[in-house]
DNA sequence: TTCTATCTACGAATGATTTCGTAGTAAACA
DNA sequence: TGTTTACTACGAAATCATTCGTAGATAGAA
């Protein structure tokens, strides 16, 4: 339910690439950092046991798929993060993020659209 | 530099209440969850060694103070979180947060003000 | 002064995460 | 067929975070 950092790395690969073998995932991860093949394997096995991944083991080389959606996972992570880091104040988190990361014009516009929509929901 | 969850709880108490003794911090924490006195003590000692807290031990009962600011700490936490959970996309984090937490009218207005200011900075 | 309460220091157990080596098995190849 | 290669399973070490018990010291009360 609450993936660890290493598990998130693997989920990101699977979310981006779709169903993959351990070797494929390992190759992706290797481009970012040092990690042994059996480390990736073990992580994915644990994630399978936890229900974070599903797998097709009909052939010798198993194929893994993310069993949790990116949306749902990020929702959970955000909830937890707002609680622990911002004591539940989501708006302070938003302002902190907007203040420290330079968003593009398009991103700012998209956020504004969302804000206006929330405004109308509030009315 | 990167406080853990338990350490963050203690920092929040000290940020809110200012310099405090272990007993005072422990009393605050106890209202939220079960935690032994020596657990709080040990945590604060470790945080002192790490440089997260400073302390006055001129009397038998030490007084601890947060040695890192809330702003700086949250900035660091956000950076890390955007990386691990959102692969660096701050705007997607913002939209996720705004979509899932109902902010008050005042908060939304404040966020809009910030957005407009960012707009002008961009021009 | 003696006893009690409070505080710090220290050590250690527990559990979770991350890591990788080794062994065994199946497939592909020569 | 026999050998090499690739893959999974398993176990276990290393690290870190969290937890608390116990011991020793200090201060205040009786």
TrEMBL record, chains A, B:
Keyword flag Ribonucleoprotein: no
Pfam families: Penicillinase_R
GO molecular function: DNA binding
Domain of life: Bacteria
Keyword NAD: no
SUPFAM superfamilies for this protein: Winged helix' DNA-binding domain
Swiss-Prot/TrEMBL keywords: DNA-binding, Transcription, Transcription regulation
GO BP annotations listed: negative regulation of DNA-templated transcription
InterPro entries, alphabetized: BlaI_family, WH-like_DNA-bd_sf, WH_DNA-bd_sf
Family: Belongs to the BlaI transcriptional regulatory family.
Protein name: Putative transcriptional regulator
Source organism of this protein record: Spirosoma oryzae
